[in-house]
Amino acid sequence: MRGPVIGKYPSSDGNGDVGAGNGIIKYNRKCRDIVFLVFFIAFWIAMIVNSSFGFNQGNPLRLNFGLDYKGNVCGGKHSDFDLRELELKYWVNPNQVYQSGMKNSGVKLSNARTICLLDCPIPSEDSLNWVCDYPEGDIRISLDDWIDMNYDYFADLTPELRNTSLQLQGPCYPVIFPSVNVYWSCQFIDRPSNVSLTNWKRMNGVTINDDMVIDKSIHNSINARSSVLKRYVADVGKSWPVLIVCGGLLPLFLSLLWLLMIRHFVTAMPWVTVFLFNGLIISVTMFYYMKAGWIGNDAISPIIGEHDPYYHVTSREQHHIRAAALLMTCVMIVSVLSSIAIVRRILMATSVLKVAAKVIGEVHALIIFPAIPYLILAVFYMIWLSAALHLFSSGEIVRNDCSTNCCAYDLKAKRVSCDDCCGYSIHYTNHIAASILFHLFGCYWATQFLIACSSTVIAGSVASYYWARGESSTTIPFLPVFSSMKLLTRYSLGSIAIGSLIVSFVESTRFILEAIRRRLKVADIMPENFIKRMMFHTSRFCLKGIELTIKSVNRNAYIMIAITGKGFFKASEIATNLIISNILRIGRVNVIGDVILFLGKLCVSLASALFAFLMLDTHKYKSSHNKITSPLFPVMVCWGLGYVVATLFFGVVEMSIDTIILSYCQDAEEHQGTAHYAPPLLIETFDEQNEVQRIGQ
């Protein structure tokens, strides 16, 4: 059965009359999929409300820095004290820390008394050092003087306050254990100072437990999954200059350079792309090896600042970077072997790219057009990232409900208080978790929506070029890119919204199911029955196949939307019928062309990741305040941003090829198997492939 005619497709109102200049792209259209456009607008109103909640409630400082005994965030400015210089969290009472590491003790580390300091205190070599509470009440010194005194005003205390300090009830506490700055928390070293411990005993201080367990609870707290996730998110926020350069500007330059080289050196570009891809993926893998400590001496370390070189602390970040290095090794091997396997097919891809290069040469605005969605995405990502940082830190600071038997001297009340010695924590509700998931989904949908809009505009411009080859050049609208943009924004935004929503929903579902699978695997409750295990693993591949199929159908549906003005589902049906009826003719050419373009996108994104590694390796991101705990997340974000930018610009070539091939199929159907409007180079490409297939049979 003969398919619908694209070149002379009936207008959207059902009138088959073709007016002057309307035989190529139909302009007599009507709005499609309005319900989904209304839903899209409502979704973005909800996104604005959700982000406003984050900006009002969040404080990104909470992602890195801890809370003190007053519930203040270290490193922040508060009504009582300006703690902007005091970023380190220090546990002042060693016995509380010890008890929190004991099983069945009932004491939690979150209830141990903490204070914010400029640096981790170290025991004295000939006397006893103290860390005292913030100066208030009768302690009439400024916070700056307190810092200059190394937090020690024990000598100025009254006999009563000295006695409470010797009972570990404050306001001053002895420095018995050395400590080291591990991710802005002072990690105790389980080697007490003999001099300090002797002086403490001479002063008749209470017994201090010096068992090795004292450092375990702090270490476990620092390496808790929630703490690691917060630090990863904070890393992305602190590395915003790297994101701008390596995730925005660099991929923009490389993508434009690639398009220009495709325009002028199309024959060589597939070979250059394959060789560059192999070199870049090997280089990025080597950087992962360096940060994992397997090459050189530049491994990531959880310790900030100078420390004893013989003292080592392990962290989850180190394990994660090593796992990433192993994963990259597998990806590198598979990628290199796959790229070698397609070398024999590169000539076929070159022919298709030549056709796209010719289109770019004639419709000059195509190279510049992706800059419009690029700028929109850049502004959106900056606002979205800022909102994400606030959402991740938007919990409420509350005093813990504990039954710990402890007392501490209150300088304001001038007495020992045993009622409010519980610590503070940041309380996260299910509402916040839902807000974060909603925010992440909104980012993915917005990205897919803008990419789809860009693809549709490009498809409309290229279709104008293709269907005008047999007619006067005046039938191509002036500046076809802007003409296609006008049609999109006026009639088809709803269709783009539903298409991008379907891709986002399927991708998000696959991600959630994969996360559940990992949790089941960790919990060791995977299906034991062989058939159930086969079904479990098969479902993963089926879902991935559905995702790839939907993406392919969507891309071709956008082409039909640009040409016919139909709704998303009708356009998908038309595109699918055309592809199925011509699969043997276009399959191999299209696949090889897509592979080369995919490798090109990976080249741009890998270059972004490589330069991100280099920027993060500078002193700025290794110093105390701006230290990146691990380059893993910032590099991954730059990698992803680079791929999105490359997708926008490479979409010019990708959509040009797909639009011309779909137009070729309909053109051939319209003219009894011979494409009347097709460029000679495209006809030669298909003829060569058909000849190869005939000989192979």
How do the helices and strands line up, and which of them pair or pack?
Layout: H1 34-57, E1 88-91, H2 94-100, E2 114-117, E3 130-132, H3 143-148, H4 159-166, E4 172-174, E5 179-182, E6 185-188, H5 194-202, H6 216-222, H7 225-238, H8 240-264, H9 269-292, H10 316-341, H11 346-362, H12 365-368, H13 371-392, E7 396-399, E8 408-410, E9 415-417, E10 424-427, H14 430-466, H15 480-522, H16 530-564, H17 568-581, H18 583-616, H19 632-670, H20 680-696
Antiparallel strand pairs: 1-2, 3-4, 5-6, 7-10, 8-9
Helix pairs in contact: 1-13, 1-14, 1-15, 7-13, 7-19, 8-18, 8-19, 9-10, 9-18, 11-18, 11-19, 11-20, 13-14, 14-15, 14-16, 14-19, 15-16, 16-17, 18-19, 18-20
